[in-house]
Write a structure and sequence with these properties.
- The protein is an alpha/beta fold.
- The protein has two domains: 2-229, Metal-dependent hydrolases (TIM Barrel, Alpha-Beta Barrel), CATH 3.20.20; 292-357, no CATH class.
- Helices cover 33% and strands 14% of the residues.
- The chain has 15 helices and 15 strands.
- The protein has helices spanning 23-33, 46-52, 85-95, 114-123, 140-143, 147-151, 167-170, 209-218, 248-253, 269-276, 293-301, 309-322, 325-330, 334-338, 342-352, and strands at residues 2-6, 37-39, 63-65, 67-71, 77-81, 127-130, 159-160, 181-182, 199-203, 221-226, 238-239, 265-266, 287-289, 357-359, 368-370.
- α11 (293-301) crosses α12 (309-322).
- It is globular and about 60 Å long.
């Protein structure tokens, strides 16, 4: 059975997260999006675990995978997946002596190294890897030149790429040759242009979070899907104040300070990945670049936000007549989309063929696209 999995989201117990991120709201958004496996996010938080108690079995038949993100030493973020909430509770108990906010924050800070965190997670039966690995503030490669330098003898189970990278960014790094890549939304809102904006298509033999984790271990990832890397806000090396972009060599010559306004220049994901690459690219599952349907509609209609009434009306018409969003973006024939809205059909055909125009992001500013 093929399933679409988004394995990294957050709850209202994390910073800057919508109050609408409730279990029912998340499940409803997944059904609209076409996500059939969803992570809970923030599962070390006791109240959030309680809120999910009645929704692990749900009318949408969506598999719920207990998950969390923690910040370890050097501000590196780690994504943790588990088969059940009992494992999360045990992990929380063991990490508690090293954290001041593990029971109050959805994404707690833990005063332990990556190796120490991973050892605890593995001993309790969990599954761990670096979150948004290439992100220049809290990704593993922002602070370390290798996985081993962070995790020591505790081998990570996967690597999450992040919104500014696709599989090609890690395929040339020797130490990642046999590490599964995940692409997840890191959603802070249940709107369909956030939930599932990046996802993994995996083959599972039966239902349940344990089988989801086993499928990743077996390498049964059929496809990664997500943003064009250029859309990410840290894709290119750029000033974090004025967003002017530089080559890595020029930034180095300027000692990582923008000559125009004195802002800090942050090394982009693309440059960092190129710096770490040391082998010919390894073979990976296909990476399918997508743009959220709401953003396509917003761009085509010339509106300021996918949340406007005009955008929402067209979005609902497409969903009601053609099915979930992922199917519309990837599978539904263009002729069927054109029967509802020719402009949207033309835009989807353009991005399916990779012919869109991209303006890369950097320094904290998202990239943009046009058809």
């Amino acid at each position: 059975m093929e399933s679409n999995a988004d394995l990294h989201i957050h709850s209202p117990y994390s910073m800057a997260v919508s109050e609408r991120m409730t279990p029912p709201g998340i499940l409803e958004a997944c059904a609209i999006k076409g996500i059939t496996i969803i992570a809970t996010g923030d599962a070390l938080h006791p109240e959030w675990r309680t809120q999910w108690a009645d929704y692990q079995e749900n009318e949408q038949d969506i598999i719920v995978v207990p998950s969390t993100e923690v910040e370890g030493m050097a501000r590196v973020h780690h994504l943790i997946l588990s088969e059940d909430f009992a494992i999360c509770e045990n992990i929380s108990s063991r990490l508690s002596p090293f954290s001041k906010n593990i029971e109050t924050s959805g994404r707690p800070q833990v005063r332990l190294s990556g190796e120490e965190i991973a050892r605890i997670v593995h001993e309790e039966g969990g599954f761990i890897g670096p979150a948004h690995a290439f992100t220049p503030w809290t990704g593993i490669y922002a602070h370390y030149n290798s996985m081993r330098a962070c995790y020591g003898n505790e081998r990570p189970d996967f690597l999450e790429l992040g919104l500014s990278a696709d599989s090609s960014y890690g395929a040339g790094i020797r130490e990642l040759e046999d590490v599964p890549f995940l692409s997840n939304s890191d959603a802070h809102s249940p709107t369909p242009h956030k939930i599932g904006r990046e996802f993994n298509r995996i083959r599972i033999r039966k239902g349940g979070p344990g089988e989801t984790i086993d499928s990743i271990r077996r390498g049964d990832i059929l496809m990664n899907a997500g943003f064009f890397p250029e859309e990410g806000k840290y894709n290119r090396t750029a000033c974090t104040r004025c967003y002017k972009q530089y080559t890595a060599a020029v930034a180095e010559a300027y000692r990582w300070r923008c000559p125009h306004d004195g802002g800090r220049i942050k090394k982009g994901v693309r440059d960092r990945a190129m710096e770490l690459s040391d082998i010919p690219p390894s073979r990976r599952p296909p990476y399918y670049h997508i743009i959220p349907l709401g953003e396509i509609i917003c761009t085509c209609l010339g509106m300021g936000s996918p949340e406007t009434r005009k955008c929402q009306l067209l979005y609902r018409a497409l969903i009601d007549q053609l099915g979930n969003e992922i199917s519309i973006l990837i599978d539904v024939p263009i002729s069927e989309i054109a029967a509802i809205e020719e402009g949207i059909a033309a835009a989807i055909q353009t991005f399916r063929s990779g012919a869109i125009t991209l303006v890369p992001g950097g320094g904290g500013k998202y990239g943009s696209f046009s058809f």
